[in-house]
Amino acid sequence: MGRGKYKSKPTGRRQFSTPEDMLAGTSTRPRTFKQVEAEHKEEEDSEEGSEQESGDESDDQGDKPRRKGTQGIIEIENPNLVKPKTLKARDIDIGKTTELSRREREEIEKQKAHERFMRLQEQGKTEQARKDLERLSLIRQQREEAAKKREEEKAAREQKKAEARK
Questions:
Q1: Does pTM top 0.85 for this prediction?
Q2: Quick one: angle between helices 127-165 and 102-123, nearest 10?
Q3: Which of 75, 129, 140, 163 has the most crowded Cβ, counting Cβ within 10 A?
Q4: Domains of the chain: total
Q5: Does residue 93 lie within any of the structural domains?
Q6: Which ranges are annotated Acidic residues under compositional bias (predicted)?
């Protein structure tokens, strides 16, 4: 029966199978694509089995695995595809040296140059180190002079206090 002025849509209806229908296999449930595909394959297998029994064998489908989509129809070799080479432990050459890439070589050269510079820097042989040492000596000299002035002022204050007490 209708409810209101709108009609109910047919997609909203549900159909449930009874246990008797399920046991009998006459369920009204729609078949999915996978079920239809499986039944189709079973039919092909049964046909191939009858062909093989009669002596007609198909050579093109015997050894090759099934491929998806157009892979089975078109055979293309991708030149950009690099297939990984598997090496066994006994085939590995231990003495073989691997060549470094350009980036790796540049990185190693950069590290060596930095270490060399730091060694020269510690020894005081670079221009920057010389300037730093000059600045450091100047600062030490100024601090020593300031310390001497402070001690002289302190001594002068103590003398004034001593004279004021007498």
A1: no
A2: 40
A3: 129
A4: 1
A5: no
A6: 44-60
